[in-house]
What does this fold into?
Amino acid sequence: MALISLTLRHARKYWSFIAAVLVLQLLSTIAALWLPSLNAQIIDQGIAKGDTDFIWRTGGFMLIVSLGQLVTAVAAVYFGARASMGVGRDLRREVYRKVDSLSTLEATRFGAGTLITRGTNDVQQIQMLVLMTLNFMVSAPIMAIGGIIMALREDAGMSWLVWASVAVLAVIVGFLVWLLLPLFRRMQDRVDAINSVLREQIMGIRVVRAFVRENFEVDRYETANRNITDISLKVGNIFVLMFPVIMMVLHIATAAVLWFGGHRVDQGLVEVGSLTAFLQYLLQILVAVMMGVFMTMMIPRAVVCAERVRELLDTESTLAFPSTESVATPRAGRIEFDGVTFGFPGAEKPVVKNVSFVAEPGETTAIIGSTGAGKTILLNLMLRLYDPQQGSITVDGAPVPALTRAQLAQTMSLVPQRPYLFSGTIASNLRFGRSGASDEELWEALRVAQGDDFVREKERQLDEPVAQGGTSVSGGQRQRLSIARALVAKPRVYLFDDSFSALDVATDARLRAALPEATRGATTIIVAQRVSTITEADQILVIEDGEIVGRGTHERLLETSEVYQEIVRSQLEEAEAA
It folds into this structure.
């Protein structure tokens, strides 16, 4: 049902192509069914009676019919390809949009490997089935039914050969489909697995090399590769068995027609031309059934793929963004947390609990705490990568869930803990948040982010190519480009998630000195590990086990917060030891 509903829903807009295929396939099949009858007439009326004119006249007509069949068959394939490619394109677009709408929790539950497979390999299998259906499954039934009718017209006495041959092939098809369906399901799971392994190895190639784990990763890939190879061989063995069996049925049927038909010719029950036509019709019937067999072999895998795609498309995102603006886009950027609690599904305790604070425009709010305290989660909740289980988050009094995606993007800009750059150029990455930014604005953002010096040293400067993930630049340069990208967007709220960790102390100091002027009037929230990064913040929140255990300025926290004092003390000891 999933396969039928998916294909019908996406094939509606291509009804004109599909109608053209149906008409052309019908014409092509009628022409193919007509040719054996004309051939029988040439044998019985032309050759047997020596009527040369009849042979030339009928032969010429057969040539015209053959050319017409060729044209209609080619045209049918063309329109079928147009329709199937369109269905595949629309389905891939829908899968991509669904993946883009999934929350972080849902995307993690599926996994990157299977999401990639469902949007590429699974859709391709459905697309190929649509193509093969339009090219074969339309003509095969017409050819089979028409062939049976025409064969019975030529010699009804040998009709039992037709029924026996078709019945044998039907039994073979049913048995093979029964064998293939579970194998195809396992095959798609193993495609997911090998995609996941390969993606991990490509993304983590530096870590693999740093720890000299190449052999281990090779073994992992070989295991995944061997698993998919084994299941593919099992499928291949069934396909290898299928065609010899079908050809054996064809040859036995041919021999039976010649044997029994020869006796009927000898007895004067049928003419030679009719026997020849009957044999050709029987072959057409069996070829049509063989095409149906080939199609049937593709259906199980397409059914599995359609179920996987349908599972993804039917997943309702827990983060439903409004389609239209119901509240005004925030202009000041005042962030307020009111009793916010959040925990991951199945977790024993929440990551953050009962968090309340206000981040005012024009001020810097810093968040500090030990690893795993819940600092990054607070930023993710602001960006609505997750929704809190209790409490509320507002921007200028507007609840974050009431903002559209566009409003949220205009309001907040994130510099993530692990900066990511996209393949393209430095300029295209900086304009990611605001495509209309001028070159002067890009250079100004780079100057504030302390990145203009190394960009000017590049041969092509702003047009310097950037590899996927930003692997063509160093970690510190990638971090500064990520900061500049956020500055170019000019949001009302800047979110820095431990964004200065890859910078040396001198660069960090220059950047912090330049930031206040660049972010004047905006709300700035900084998650930091180093105390030196946040000493000038207007408000510092100390997080411990998901709760705020201290808040105030640097000087006040040094007097009142034991946790903050411990963090400062540990970093001073590290600095002295260094």
Remarks:
- The chain has 19 helices and twelve strands.
- The chain has two domains: 2-313, 335-577.
- The mean pLDDT is 79.
